[in-house]
Request: fold
Amino acid sequence: MVRVCFVCLGNICRSPTAEGVFRHLLRRRGLAGAIEVDSAGTSAYHVGEPPDARATAAAARRGIRLSGRARQFKPEDFARFDYVVAMDRANLRRLREMARRAGALDKVFLFRDLDPDSPEGADVPDPYYGGPDGFEEVLDIVEAGAEGLLAHILRQHPEIAGEAAR
Ligand code: 4NP
Reply:
């Protein structure tokens, strides 16, 4: 089992969207049993809250369900996950700081860096204070990036690729 955790600031917009989109993709590829998905935030601002209603509505229009309650990413999470995926560079910096102390720097990635069609070092922009277009943009970026992330994981874990084919 490979474990992936998406991490943004609040864990109510971008990372639950990435979690929902990636889980949806895994189900379509027959990989839901091989890769476990979760999400968290670097802040505690919204701990216990469900995903933002605007994110949930935008995802639902694409047939994707968002789930879970916001939680804060903790240093102990590095032991649980193989891929800790930051949605933007600000959160990447926070995670790398934490990971350095935990000896887990090799588990931390920037989401869009795993998408070969994305520019190097690009963020998934924070939609929280913007209008509804921001949530559509997040979904577009996340749907493209999810394919890149899955391809990356399958290259590193060929045993899982075999599972999809069975
Ligand atoms: P997220 O969006 O990090 O994608 O969940 C945000 C949610 C809340 C805040 C900022 C961004 N906030 O400042 O409360």
Q: What stands out?
A: Residues 24 and 64 are 7 Å apart (CA to CA). The first helix runs from residue 14 to 28. The longest strand covers residues 2-8. The pocket of 4-nitrophenyl phosphate is lined by residues 8-14, 45-46, 126, 128 (CB under 6 Å).
